[in-house]
Amino acid sequence: MGETRQYNMGFVWRICLVAALGGLLFGYDWVVIGGAKPFFTKFFHLDTPGNEWRQGWAMSSALAGCVAGSILSGVASDKFGRKRLLILSGLLFTASAIWTGLANSYNSFIWARIIGGVGIGLASNLSPMYIAEVSPADTRGKFVSINQLTIVIGVVLAQVVNWAIASGMSGKITDQELINSWYGQYGWRWMFAAETVPAAMFFFLMFAIPESPRWLVRNGKTKDARNILKSVGGDDYADFEIEDIQKTIDNDNGKVDFKELLNPKMIKVVLIGVVLAALQQWCGVNVLFYYAEDVFKAAGYNISGIMLTIVTTGLVMLLFTFVAIFTVDWIGRKTLMLTGALGLTICHSAISASFHYHLQGLPVLALVLAAIACYSFSLAPVTWVLLSELFPNRIRGAAMSISVFVLWVTCWALAQWFPSMREQLGAAGSFGVFAGICLAGTLFVLFVVPETKGKSLEEIERELVD
To answer: Which of helix, strand or coil describes residue 276?
Structure first.
């Protein structure tokens, strides 16, 4: 029953890869704005004195949409299902890509980014949840990590598109020459509009995959759920899974009661999810992507060097995501999280020292790449695996949305306030703070976070809340 060869892995791969396209769009939309920043800020005159807040809002408005999307997913996913809301996220991604590419005013640009952010909020919540609910227990970590892989592919794709579009620029030009150039008028638009192709693919392909069987059982559609589970592992597997799922929801009326999240047994589980979500964002690595231009400029790189270096960081992230995919169901979630968090503590401490002693160039780049490598096989993918596994069936949508809500609020706060943090503490002080956060995170994982590898979602539920 537990052997992978008994499963129809072709079927599982197909539906998980389609759902994971939401991750690719999440990664692309999250990172593309960093490469477009030097162009659209001049187009909308956001780099002039007195416009610091408007520039910060342009950079972080999509994250506000992420918060709204995570709230919507919590309110609606247990009522309408995972599939319908993932279809909606595909539609929002497509609309945002086209709208941002056509925006001719600051307000229009902001609204387009917020719409895309709602799509990210939905997909970042529902894609890993859906994958976890359709995957067999002993391969679930790998399949949920595939969602992180597609996020990284989206990140690299955005970096490559940005670099390809901007690489035609040569020599030094004035701000006015840049505004009047093709790059200043149209090039940055294509950076955003290029997302239309994968977004439209995601929207249409989502119609072809089934609903989550666990959601179907919760809503009285056991026959439909059994047919899906039968396609995954045959009759015996389907019967066993249906019976196990049913045991955990016998007292559930199919409606989400948010008050149940305050049950003492549930509070601990929800708090674990909330802390892990905050740690993933406040560990400091996202700063290296969102404000890569500023970080590498402080390390002594010029514009062309910065753009190429940013692509290098994405490739390192892609490479080490494969480490997580091939080890998460073997080594386990907890060991990977501990190794990565401790590694980040060391890397950030060294980066802080490098800035303090005014080191530049390759030493800083090597430390940054080491930090990204640690993040990419641990906090980046494994946090999503744990969030998709920890919560009981009857509250999974609501609890997941709370964790993702915290994730995007903390992401927004970091993006909005890092420039002020850097101004007050300097680069050395800022990375010193991140090192302290990672050390605290290491201790939290060591003493609080459970190991979940190889266990069904129902087994995890019984261990944590029964």
So the answer is: helix
> Which residues contact residue 229 at a Cβ distance below 8 angstroms, ignoring those fewer than 6 apart?
213, 237, 238, 241, 242
pLDDT digits (tens), the chain, 466 positions: 444 447 888 999 999 999 999 999 988 987 888 778 888 988 998 887 777 788 878 888 898 898 899 888 877 888 899 999 999 999 999 999 999 999 999 999 999 999 999 999 999 889 988 998 999 888 888 888 888 889 889 988 998 898 888 877 665 677 777 788 888 899 999 999 999 999 999 999 999 999 999 899 988 899 999 999 999 999 889 998 898 888 776 555 445 556 677 777 788 899 999 999 999 999 988 777 655 666 666 666 655 566 667 778 888 989 999 999 899 989 999 999 999 999 999 999 999 998 888 887 778 888 888 999 999 999 999 998 999 889 887 777 778 888 988 988 888 888 777 777 877 888 899 999 999 999 999 999 999 999 998 888 888 888 887 6
3-class DSSP state for residue 455? coil
User: Which residues neighbour 400 within 8 Å (Cβ) at sequence distance 6 or greater?
Assistant: 73, 74, 77, 125, 129, 273, 387, 388, 391
The DSSP element (H or E) to which 364 belongs, if any, is: helix 362-376
Q: Residue 328 in contact with residue 142, Cβ under 8 Å?
A: yes
Q: Terminus-to-terminus CA distance in the chain, angstroms? A: 25
CB 321 within 8 A of CB 381: yes
Q: Which residue has tokens 């955003």?
A: 192
What region, left, alpha or beta, does residue 344 occupy, with left being phi > 0 and alpha being psi -120 to 50 degrees? alpha
**Of 201, 380, 218, the residue nearest 286 (C-alpha):** 380
Locate the domains of the chain by residue range: 4-465
Torsion angle, CA of 410/158/24/403, rounded to 10 degrees?
Answer: 0
Write out the CATH class of domain 4-465.
Answer: mainly alpha
How distant, in Å, are the alpha carbons of 114, 271, 280, 313 from that of 381?
A: 25, 19, 10, 16
